[in-house]
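Batch manifest, entry 17 of 40.
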Amino acid sequence: MPISIDKIPDSTKELLKWKYESRGFKVSFPQFLALYVYAYNKAEEYGFSDPETTVMELFDRIDPDLSYDELKSEIEAYLIPVSTPELEEMEFWKRRAEELEKELKKAVSPKVYEELKRELERVKKRLEEREREIEELKRYGVREEIKERTKEFEEIIKEYPTDELVASWYALETKPPELSEEEWLARREAIRRELERRKVPKSPITGNFLEPVREWKGIRVPAEMRFWYDPVERRFYRDGRPVTPETIEKAILTLLKPIKVERPLPPVFRAPPKPPAFRQPGYRKSYYEEPPNYKQVDRHIELIVGMIMVETGKHPREMTEEEIADILAKLEPSYPRQVYYFRWFIQNFPNWRELV
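Output type: structure tokens
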């Protein structure tokens, strides 16, 4: 059904505004909306199954520096990637069907009526065949070998993980030099259909496919959490609504198993008493001495490094001395022995950042 500017939904206008500003079109925004209406109605007229998606992808390819009339000509050229004979034949059968329908209404004899009806059915069948052929040409181009390669490509991408398939979608936003225009568009269309079949959500702002969040700060994110990321917006989504990184962090921490409390060590193996919190790590002479039970140092250091990454999101080697002192003071009430060994480690090994 043809549309006009006043019938464009607000969400679509917002997306068009974003495309208009991000690509820097030279025409005014009202002219840009008029181009969208023109392209949408033309795509619907030429039989595209999803005119809105077709036009949005078209606006990603056309040159933003062209004038209004030049953009209309380029849109027309993109929307009819088929040869003229096929279109002319389809128009012929369409006109013939309209003529037969008019004659059918004026027929007075039952015999003439039946003949016209059979002729009309035959013409409509030919018209449907031509429409299917043109739709195939629009999807796959004019060469049969491209159609065969695209079918093989469709079978291959069914084995792709969703995150790799979304990455391929973004990688094919620009045409690779080794692909022709027809094959590039055919592959884009195949990936789009596969992503829609898997029900991959789109961003409500940009309309881009969202990438599934598989890993968060070194921790695998289960698929049932349904966290998604828009690399263009740089925003996270869940169930169609934007979420903050803190929400993901909180959800991940609920999945972590609690750290098992070790049995108390015998007195001879226990760590020395911890120093007062307000003193600097190098204040006590005992820090420069080898702590008891030296074999346990490695696992205690690994635990503290992991807790620092969970609390701050950064690796200790990327932090300053002041930041490390602050986070160790925060962890010390819960992990006194491990914090003590970690402080001993950074005091006795000047190259400790290369070792952790």
